[in-house]
User: What shape does this take?
Amino acid sequence: MMKTRTDEEDYWNSSKYKAFTFDDEDDELSRLQESKRAVNSIRGLVDDEDNDEDDVERVSWSGEPVGSISWSVKETAASNQRTDRDPTPFPRISTDVANVSRSHSGYSLSSLFKGKMKGANFQSFTDSLTDSSVRLYAPELRKPKSEYKDLVGDWSPEETVHRMQQGKVVSLEKFRSLHDKLLLLDFSVSAHDGNVITAILIYLKRTLSKEVLFRELESRQTALRHFIHYLTETRDQKLLLDLLRSLGRTEDTVLLQYKEHLNISDANKRRDFLKSCVSLPFSADDLAHVQDHFTLLDRQIIMEATDGKNEREGKVEIFHKFPRKAPILNMPLIPTLHYSCLYHYSEAQETFSSPLSLRHTFKISEKQFFVTALAARVKLKAWSDVDALFRSRNWLGFTRKKAPLGFHRVVDVLHKNSAPAQVLQEYVALVDDADLRISLAHKHKCHDIVINTYRDLKDRQLLLGYREKVESGSAAQKKIDELLENPQIRWKN
Assistant: This one.
């Protein structure tokens, strides 16, 4: 039966449903605009003396600006407390608490919204709001799923290595099979990224037995070198020794064991450890080095005990005149020889502390021994010992001065140790090269050498020029005048 137009209008007006019109969207827009006007009217009521919209600052009920760091910390802490106490999303606020009356308080809504205090009763108002029974709680927002994508993504080993190169966080725990773990390692090696290789090796070290890991690394030399370097840097000596033994690298193993002496501070324990290292399967050259190291430390312990006692008792003059700066223990060979030349130079070769004994035992070269002994004796101003170092006898029995290094270097050593002019002049005269000899004589003011050299060259002009450089009335000037007046000398110019 057909309804009349009047019946249709009555039906739509009385029903809870509304007929569709093309003006619905306009109605929704008008309602939104009306809501916005209502909100703006409330803001006008809240503002007191300041109506400037830029001055309105949103604050929480605790007086903190909304969105500030302190507000976020407090709201997060309140949310955590709510989670611990009650699993429900929002706890009920007790209705037993008395309502706060505006008429008896000294605050205004504008003060709350702007963070301003009006009246002395504002503190009591905030105290009542912070009471545990009326505490406000903010829900803790979950992080977006996109932030967990790197961790939960089903990446292949190749994609995982690529993402690690980009610095993204990935999880290696999902790669449980040996095949997948080795794929990770192979792709990281192909990527030529040392950081990624090391990160994956650390994961394999934690999740694989060392037997399986060593077996797989043996066929992957690049990864093996990275792993050895990593163990060396982290000082995992035990695992490194096991790895080298499994690879059959005997020399590397024994050298690594020998380096353990560096971690032993006690000299006697270190000597005993070095003695035990002599029996290890070193190469011939390395074994000689270890043997010399043990012998040298053994002698140093004996010398230190004797010299320390003599220094404390004050019976030996040289220790009082030149006090020792440091113990001799664990010093290298050449500093030990220098020490011996300082304090035990005149001792017989049979004693452990004698320089000659050290030279013979450790096969020190003549040049090295000469330079070390010269530096030690010059430091002590023992010029007679210095002179004895240069004396040499030929097969006819004649003595002459000879040195395994150039005399110009000897002059430098003497000058650095403040040798007297007489000593310097003696060794400058032994320099073979005439130009170098003249240069050194000028530098160290050895006048006699310069004058005699110019005399031998029969160069009158050079002699006259040098006369102007020496002090007036000095012995050098008088000697030059005598030579210039000597009629027997036939000058070239």
Summary: Residues 228 and 234 are 10 Å apart (CA to CA).
